[in-house]
Specification:
about 325 residues; alpha/beta; Nucleotidyltransferase, domain 5; 8 strands; about 55% helix; about 15% strand; RNaseH-like_sf
């Protein structure tokens, strides 16, 4: 049985022999015709039977990247493991270069400030990210994995370990530590010898959230769930009721609470709609059908904001 290798993404799911192709996803191993090298029937099979739609533009882009690499004298990696090995080797080179640069700076008795922040990946794994600063210079020290719980003492230990990887000692070479205003970070700052400062931008973010994330309207969102019809009636009645109460349009004590209330109503209505399409693949497929008509076949999904993710509220509203 002679197999033929092809660059097309179709052949990730089919095994070719002669003028036929066997589907590797079908239990029965369906065999389809691909005479003349045509893949139309194979693509149709993947979409109708397995709901797999191959992106021709992405496939062409990948082929272009490979041609560029080869023209520059590089060979494209053969597997994911090869890419992983090369990335790790390069990261060691970068780390060694940073250590050498920092060592030269320390010889001149310079001192640094550092920032750290917790990050949760899409795989629900927790990490701590570290940056080092000297005037206008910045060094990204990378991530440290967080296992189990992380009290203030553990957070300090993780910080010290990461700095020591670059021959930097917290109490000797660092003059300031900047974190967000989380309680564990505040407590950790009290345990550190360097000055602890809470991020000013994070304080502004919390102030904005205090205005635009109203607990009362959030409660109504959770209760109503995926029932936007009921919400529409409630919002309409509430707005009419509020309008009746406005007697003096120039009274600042009335304008701003009402403005905040209406902003929250609109924002939470956007959240309900975004959540509705995120939770229902069927409804989202219908929506994407209209989106692709407008965007020349490209999908654009609604975004749901997260209170702890900076600017996600703006991104959600802009996408909506």
């Amino acid at each position: 049985m002679a197999t033929t290798k092809s660059k097309s993404l179709v052949w990730k799911h089919f095994e070719k022999f002669d003028e036929k192709a066997k589907c590797s996803l079908c239990i029965s191993g369906n065999i389809l015709s691909c005479s003349g090298g045509s893949t139309s029937a194979l693509r149709k099979h993947l979409f109708s039977v397995h709901n797999i739609k191959l992106d021709d533009a992405q496939e062409a882009k990948e082929d272009t990247f490979q041609v560029i690499l080869i023209s520059k004298g590089f060979m494209p990696p053969k597997s994911h493991s090869t890419i992983s090995i090369r990335v790790r080797e390069y990261s060691l080179q970068v780390k060694s270069s940073i250590k050498q640069e920092l060592a030269e700076i320390l010889e001149n008795k310079a001192r640094f400030s550092t920032t750290l922040d917790e990050y949760t990946s899409n795989c629900n794994r927790r990490y701590m990210n570290f940056n080092l600063y000297l005037k206008l210079q910045v060094w990204i020290l990378g991530l440290a994995r967080i296992f189990n719980t992380m009290p203030a003492e553990s957070a300090k230990g993780i910080l010290e370990s990461k700095l020591e990887e670059f021959d930097i000692h917290l109490n000797e070479h660092v003059v300031a530590v900047v974190t967000d205003g989380a309680s564990v970070m505040t407590k950790m700052g009290k345990l550190c010898k360097p000055i602890h400062s809470i991020c000013f931008a994070h304080a502004i973010h919390l102030a904005v959230c205090d205005v635009l994330h109203d607990p009362k309207t959030n409660d109504s969102v959770e209760i109503l769930g995926n029932s936007p019809g009921e919400l529409n009636e409630e919002l309409h009645d509430q707005m009419l009721h509020d309008d009746d109460e406005i007697c003096d349009p120039y009274n600042i004590d009335i304008i701003f609470p009402i403005l905040k209330h209406h902003l929250n109503l609109v924002i939470n209505k956007v959240r309900i709609i975004a959540r509705l399409f995120r939770k229902s693949p069927t409804k989202n497929d219908i929506l994407q059908g209209y989106v692709k008509e407008i965007r020349n076949g490209k999908e654009l999904k609604l975004i749901l904001d997260c209170k702890t993710r900076w600017s996600s509220l703006l991104t959600m509203i802009e996408r909506f």
